[in-house]
């Protein structure tokens, strides 16, 4: 079996998804889960993008010990210096230097000749050696680069000291046969290529990112770059979970294995979805809500007789748990703690107690509490920030022929209670106007999404909002059986985040309340 290394770029290319902007704490959160998932490398950001990005990479690098932490850099000394600043305390660090090689990018974007591209790529790799023992070089838009020139650039950067060569299909243009052949041809043409790792990086513009990644493996790649849930620039990147499961399920074909702990996939997917606000469609392979659901009679008959008639992967394989303990109002602390451990959380006694109170509160509102409900409760707790405002109560007067009126009672940090009411163009609008009157914050609501995270009439609804104020953009989320309450809490959480960011423009990292002990 060949070993395939998984290079996760959820925190870099994944964060390039429009509307996604992770805080430092959120990046740490996801990074720790990626480490548990078993990725070989994780690209945490692009250090030169901002001082906050450098701090995020530094904070992740402090905590992650078993995975190589990567920062992306243009082929510029200044970018490489910043990556070093971000990574110098990492246990295992790698700089990922890139330069576009295709004619379109050379001519229109870089306005450089072939000779200048080779020269700048070599100079960058040579400069990076000053700091880093592990250097990955990417020929951006490799897939649309003339094969002779691609071979020339790769030969030059390998000679200069690059240890990993990544050949991205930056715009998702390739077919599997074409992309696999690029790897085959480079292996034939470039002297010394057997001494470096070859890596794929595929985008999903034509829906072929995973197929192309697998074709790259067949062509000789030993590293695959991908993101959780396939998020990323434009249509996204190859989905990590799909690559991992394709290799595992069809090992007879690919003869390859990864270090991915498959049963951590469901948890990782949920965490990334919640923190990025990029919801997973129901029909998404491996992690969609319907990925293991059988709806039609003939299928149901088949799986009842023999599960493999319609199921090629067991849900447990990727960490979807079967409900062994039924949790509800009559459950005690022991059963709850057992359930948390079954779901993969290892919490301190105090944290269990705190979660238990929230669980009991939910039981009063919901007949049966499912595993998803509990994970949602814990994840919403993880997101809590220092609170300038706390919603105490919410009342809404609504009728289909009258204007909705919301009244809110909100606790301020000094303990004072403030009440306000407002009318609006709908229930949510009236709630948000009443909250604005209390907080006196001028914010713009850039995005509002609502999804059902569990099933049934009393299902938990998750609300996601994105707010901005003077260039600061934050997300807020909350989960509740009452979507209007969740809407109010998500909005207040986002306002609290804006205040925290503004107050602490140096952006010191808050200790993580729960997940540092999540298993
Ligand atoms: C395919 C990918 O995903 S690549 C990664 C994309 N990710 C990002 O861009 C996110 C982070 N980016 C940023 O924060 C900003 O773009 C920065 C800080 C890096 C640069 O900002 P600015 O200095 O304002 O430049 P801007 O982004 O407008 O333009 C990019 C410049 O870099 C140049 N450039 C692009 N790629 C490279 C490269 N690999 N090496 C060297 N220069 C490059 C462009 O030609 C352009 O140069 P010009 O200003 O001389 O025309
Ligand atoms: C920076 C590179 C690796 C990239 O993201 C791409 O080419 O898509
Ligand atoms: Mg990319």
UniProtKB/TrEMBL annotation:
The keyword Manganese applies. Keywords: Amino-acid biosynthesis, Branched-chain amino acid biosynthesis, Cytoplasm, Leucine biosynthesis, Manganese, Metal-binding, Transferase. It catalyses: 3-methyl-2-oxobutanoate + acetyl-CoA + H2O = (2S)-2-isopropylmalate + CoA + H(+). One of its GO terms (cellular component) is cytoplasm. Its EC number is 2.3.3.13. One of its GO terms (biological process) is L-leucine biosynthetic process. One of its GO terms (molecular function) is manganese ion binding. Catalyzes the condensation of the acetyl group of acetyl-CoA with 3-methyl-2-oxobutanoate (2-ketoisovalerate) to form 3-carboxy-3-hydroxy-4-methylpentanoate (2-isopropylmalate). Homodimer. Belongs to the alpha-IPM synthase/homocitrate synthase family. LeuA type 1 subfamily. This is 2-isopropylmalate synthase. The lineage of its organism: Bacteria, Bacillati, Bacillota, Bacilli, Bacillales. The gene is leuA.
């Amino acid at each position: 079996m060949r070993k395939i290394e998984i290079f996760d770029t959820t925190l870099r290319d994944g964060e390039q998804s429009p509307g996604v902007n992770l805080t430092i704490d959120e990046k740490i959160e996801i990074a720790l889960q990626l480490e548990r998932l078993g990725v070989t490398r994780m690209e945490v950001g692009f250090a030169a993008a901002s001082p906050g990005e450098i701090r995020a990479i530094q904070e992740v690098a402090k905590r992650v010990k078993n995975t190589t932490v990567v920062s992306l850099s243009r082929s510029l000394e200044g970018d490489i210096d910043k990556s070093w600043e971000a990574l110098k305390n990492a246990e295992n660090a790698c700089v990922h230097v890139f330069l576009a090689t295709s004619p379109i990018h050379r001519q229109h974007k870089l306005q450089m000749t072939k000779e200048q591209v080779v020269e700048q790529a070599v100079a960058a790799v040579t400069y990076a050696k000053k700091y880093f023992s592990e250097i990955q070089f990417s020929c951006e838009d490799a897939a649309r680069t003339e094969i002779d020139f691609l071979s020339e650039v790769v030969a030059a950067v390998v000679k200069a000291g690059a240890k990993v060569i990544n050949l991205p299909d930056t715009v998702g243009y390739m077919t599997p046969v074409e992309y696999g052949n690029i790897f085959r041809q480079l292996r034939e043409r470039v002297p010394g290529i057997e001494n470096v790792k070859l890596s794929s990086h595929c985008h999903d513009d034509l829906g072929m990112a995973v197929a192309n990644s697998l074709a790259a493996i067949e062509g000789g790649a030993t590293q695959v770059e991908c993101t959780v849930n396939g998020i990323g620039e434009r249509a996204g990147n190859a989905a990590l979970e799909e690559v991992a499961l394709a290799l595992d399920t069809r090992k007879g074909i690919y003869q390859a294995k990864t270090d991915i702990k498959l049963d951590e996939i469901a948890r990782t997917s949920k965490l990334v979805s919640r923190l990025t606000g990029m919801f997973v469609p129901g029909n998404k392979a491996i992690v969609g809500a319907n990925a293991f659901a059988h709806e039609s009679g003939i299928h149901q008959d088949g799986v009842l007789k023999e599960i493999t008639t319609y199921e090629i992967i067991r849900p447990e394989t990727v960490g979807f748990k079967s409900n062994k303990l039924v949790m509800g109002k009559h459950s005690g602390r022991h059963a709850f703690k057992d359930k948390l451990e079954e779901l993969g959380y290892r919490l301190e006694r105090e944290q269990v107690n705190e979660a238990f109170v929230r669980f009991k509160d939910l039981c009063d509102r919901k007949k049966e509490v499912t595993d998803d409900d509990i994970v949602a409760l814990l994840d919403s707790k993880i997101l809590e920030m220092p609170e300038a405002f706390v919603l105490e109560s919410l009342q809404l007067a609504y009728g289909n022929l009258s204007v909705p009126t919301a009244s809110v009672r909100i606790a301020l940090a000094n303990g004072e209670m403030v009440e306000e009411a407002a009318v609006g163009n709908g229930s949510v609008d009236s709630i948000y106007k009443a909250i604005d009157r209390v907080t006196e914050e001028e914010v713009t609501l850039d995005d509002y999404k609502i999804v059902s995270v569990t099933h049934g009439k009393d299902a938990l609804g998750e609300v996601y909002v994105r707010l901005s104020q003077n260039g600061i953009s934050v997300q807020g989320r909350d989960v509740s059986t009452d979507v209007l309450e969740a809407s109010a809490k998500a909005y207040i959480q986002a306002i609290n985040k804006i205040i925290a960011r503004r107050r602490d423009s140096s952006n010191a990292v808050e200790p993580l309340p729960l997940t540092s002990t999540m298993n």
